[in-house]
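Tokens in:
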């Protein structure tokens, strides 16, 4: 843990000096709204209004929107770990927007800045550089988990980290329709439940469970990669930051919690680099590749894996 007490510098963004007021308001709604949904589910609906249809819709929306972030926003658009045609690109882009973590250009440019300055003072959401001791660790974890959304999110929405996106008419069009995708992420479970049951109340119920609660759960899983996976867990490969693998988060983040693997090989479409490492995003990409829908899938070579393998390095040091 870095113990410098200096706050993130003002020049942390290259396109904006600070997060806009509009962005903070939207972020507040996006963070608080799902939380209120969880409270309503726990206090008003638990044991009273929860049906198998709600769970099915929760799972379907969680997987569809989640893969939009992990396989789409992250591995396809941020790191170009594979290539695809317009239909697959559009599907991943829309699904990612429906996860309600911000427009694609905002998400990707913030993430690319994170990699450019990972765990350094200019990193938008590093849990480090927030002071020493237990209190510094707590402040850092809070900043990396949710605090950065109100302070440094969206400061990179420029051509420095997003030239390829801004030159893509498809991506610009999907970004402009962001609020439509937000409406759909809540409207689809509501409409499906209402259409199947004919009961408006069941539509509202699905809106809560498969809409608000689902967004809340996936958001916190994603944010845990920023916070927990840069403080706790195991380092398998040599990197210049504090990224770590956290196995118990991997199933819920579709493989994103193999975070040290990712930072060691950021261009790789596969994060779970070993057979036992659960990586549903990779399984999805691999299935699409076999179907001929994606191509030029990037993977690290065995030689690159061996060069960065910390256990191998330790073994060599021990032999010496």
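Residues out:
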């Amino acid at each position: 843990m870095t113990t410098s007490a200096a706050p993130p510098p003002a020049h942390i963004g290259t396109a904006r000096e600070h997060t806009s007021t509009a962005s903070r308001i939207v972020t507040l709604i996006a963070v608080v709204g799902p939380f209120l949904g969880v409270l309503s589910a726990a206090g008003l609906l638990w044991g009273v209004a929860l049906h198998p249809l709600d769970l099915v819709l929760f799972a379907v929306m969680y997987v569809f929107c989640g893969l939009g972030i992990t396989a789409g926003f992250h591995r396809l658009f941020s790191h170009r770990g594979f290539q695809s045609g317009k239909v697959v690109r559009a599907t991943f882009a829309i699904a990612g927007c429906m996860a309600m973590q911000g427009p694609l250009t905002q998400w990707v440019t913030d993430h690319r800045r994170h990699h450019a300055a990972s765990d350094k003072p200019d990193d938008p959401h590093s849990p480090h550089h927030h002071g020493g001791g237990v209190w510094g660790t707590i402040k850092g974890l809070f900043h990396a988990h949710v605090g950065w959304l109100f302070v440094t999110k969206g400061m990179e929405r420029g051509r420095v980290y997003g030239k390829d996106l801004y030159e893509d008419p498809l991506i610009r069009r999907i970004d402009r329709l962001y609020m439509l995708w937000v409406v759909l992420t809540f409207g689809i479970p509501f409409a499906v439940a209402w259409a199947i049951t004919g009961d408006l109340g069941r539509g509202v119920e699905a809106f809560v469970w498969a809409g608000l609660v689902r967004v809340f759960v996936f958001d916190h899983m994603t944010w845990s990669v920023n916070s927990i996976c840069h403080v706790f867990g195991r380092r398998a490969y040599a990197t210049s930051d504090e990224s770590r693998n956290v196995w118990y988060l991997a199933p819920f983040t579709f493989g994103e919690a193999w975070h040290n693997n990712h930072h060691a090989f950021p261009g790789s479409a596969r994060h779970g680099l070993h057979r036992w490492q659960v990586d549903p995003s990779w399984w999805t990409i691999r299935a699409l590749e076999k179907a001929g829908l994606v191509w030029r899938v990037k993977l690290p070579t065995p030689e690159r894996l061996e060069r960065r393998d910390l256990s191998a390095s330790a073994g060599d040091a021990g032999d010496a």
